[in-house]
Design brief:
The chain is α/β, with parallel strands linked by helices. 37% of the residues lie in helices and 14% in strands. Bound molecules: flavin mononucleotide (FMN). Flavin mononucleotide binds next to loops.
Length: 414
């Protein structure tokens, strides 16, 4: 089996011409953005963890499982956060929480995202994680914009209830001991109800070790551009812990631009790495002052797809299930290549590794990466929404009562 990551590394590292000035693998908007100057950026300290480059793989439900994290990590470095796990289920050792909260034996640091709406369940879940020595970092999700969740007072609605938010964060931090806790949230419910500054202050006061801001409101979902001004503002407000910026890092130079423009301490990368795990190599390069390397051709991407799929099969020990979860990745890997519209209908029906191998044998291995596709959104593309909230939800922001089970969700967004 070809180790496609090694292949890509080996070729690019020995081929000095691959590191071109003014590369066409950089979109026009980033052509003049210089790579990092020596000492320009520092590792980001998340409690005892020193993260370099200052790059975090965003938690993505159904995606950032152990095989995907491993694949991304082999290209680069930084912190790679798990899929979101529901606190109540984890505290109960519910089977649904078991696989998604597992780490490979060699994974370091082990970073897990927890979602909870009730301080009691969150406290119990953190106790389980800590007493069973299962994690090195806990991130908490307060950014889920899904109607069913906010409509029941959970997810991105929680920061609109600062007393409740504080009690959940406190339960996590107090039970975490030395394990650093961070929280991730959106800018607010909508433009009229921004909650990120309050959420940031609460995190700081309660002992979180960093905050991450997805610079969109819940009303925005994934629509339009993230508003990096929110990140600038949060960074001005939060003085004692790192601020991580999130939203629209499609290319490595976007991360440099975001950090330079906002002063944030690190970046969180979500959809940009879907079908492009080598984005983490690009990020490692530009943060270390090196030009980024040429992207893989379709043949190398096909090798990478097979490798990713095989890792999933091994991880789940269930070929059919693994291949079904891999279908969405297929569409991202081949997006923008000339035969994509012919390949995708086949790829989204694969049932086994052999199906995948057969389809990938037909591709033109020499086709170069479609540069026009560099900044095409992937993963989520829903229109804006009017955020659903429970009736009377905003009447008493100081209401400390947790919203209950209905505000939980097993697959989410942030
Ligand atoms: C498929 C998908 C699943 C996601 N699941 C989660 C999640 O479980 N927890 C979370 O905090 N954010 C989740 N997010 C949001 C991302 O972590 C990130 O905040 C968002 O995609 C914006 O970053 P980006 O512009 O780099 O993609 C998800 C995003 C996507 C696309």
């Amino acid at each position: 089996m070809t180790n496609s990551d090694d292949t890509i590394r080996a070729e690019t590292q020995t081929d000095a011409t691959a590191r071109v000035e003014g590369s066409s693998y950089i979109s026009e908007m980033n052509q003049t953005v210089p790579v990092a100057a020596p000492g320009e950026f520092q590792p980001v300290a998340i409690g005892p963890l020193s993260v370099w480059p200052p790059v975090v793989l965003a938690p993505m439900a159904g995606i950032t499982n152990s095989p995907f994290r491993r694949l991304c990590r082999r290209f680069g470095a930084g912190l790679y956060v798990s899929e979101m796990v529901t606190a109540r289920l984890l505290a109960q050792h519910h089977p649904a929480s078991t696989k998604i909260s597992e780490f490979a034996t060699d994974e370091q640091p082990r970073s897990l995202q927890l979602y909870g709406v009730d301080p009691e369940h969150v406290g119990q879940a953190v106790q389980v994680l800590v007493s069973e020595n299962r994690v090195d970092h806990i991130d908490m999700n307060f950014g889920c914009p899904v109607r069913k969740v906010t409509g029941n007072g959970g997810g991105a609605a929680i920061p609109a209830k600062p007393v409740l938010l504080r009690s959940i964060v406190r339960a996590a931090v107090q039970n975490a001991g030395k394990i650093p806790v961070t929280i991730k949230f959106r800018a607010g419910i909508d433009d009229d109800l921004l909650t990120y500054l309050t959420a940031g202050r609460i995190a700081e006061e309660e002992g979180c070790k960093a905050v991450a801001l997805h610079a969109r409101t819940a009303a925005q979902l994934y629509h339009g551009s993230a508003n990096w001004d929110f990140i600038t503002r949060l960074k001005q407000e939060i003085r004692t812990i790192p601020v991580l910026g999130n939203g629209d890092i499609w290319e490595a130079r976007d991360a440099l631009r975001m950090m330079r423009a906002t002063g944030c301490d690190g970046v969180v990368v979500g959809r940009g790495c879907l079908g492009r795990p080598w984005l983490f190599r690009d990020l490692a390069d530009v943060f270390s002052g090196r030009e980024q390397q040429e992207p893989p051709s379709l043949g190398k991407i096909a090798d990478l797809m097979l490798e990713h799929a095989r890792m999933l099969v091994q991880w789940y020990d269930n070929e059919l299930y693994a291949m079904k979860t891999f279908r969405k990745h297929c569409t991202w890997y081949v997006k923008g290549f000339t035969k994509a519209s012919h390949l995708i209908p086949q790829l989204i029906q694969i049932l086994c590794l052999e199906d995948l191998e057969n389809i990938l044998q037909t591709v033109n291995r020499d086709e170069p990466f479609p540069l026009r596709n560099l900044r095409t959104p992937r993963g989520k593309r829903r229109k804006k929404q009017k955020v659903a909230l429970p009736q009377g939800f905003l009447d008493d922001p100081n209401d400390p009562r947790p919203p209950g089970k209905k505000a939980e969700v097993s697959t989410s967004g942030g």
